[in-house]
Specification:
Blueprint lengths: L9 H10 L3 H4 L5 E4 L5 E3 L24 E3 L8 H11 L4
Amino acid sequence: MTANLSDIPEPLRLAHEISGVNSKILAGGRQKCGCFGCGKIFDSGEIDLAIYTEPSAVQCPYCLMDALLPESAGFPITPEFLAEMHDVYFSVV
């Protein structure tokens, strides 16, 4: 894991911030999503948004982590980007 927040590249920091308030973005319609917790890529239609009553972090329907990125947030929803995010935020070195 990166030792210092300032060592994390800005795009990864911004993506992490978005994952914490993604329910409002996801309410805008169906789109591709990716989880940087488990690496799964899926359609937002697989998420039951009705359980999220306030702007919050929507959980991945596969691993239940709040590490979900919607495509409309502007980040690449690719295995490579999700792996990079996972390495920075979940890997212990």
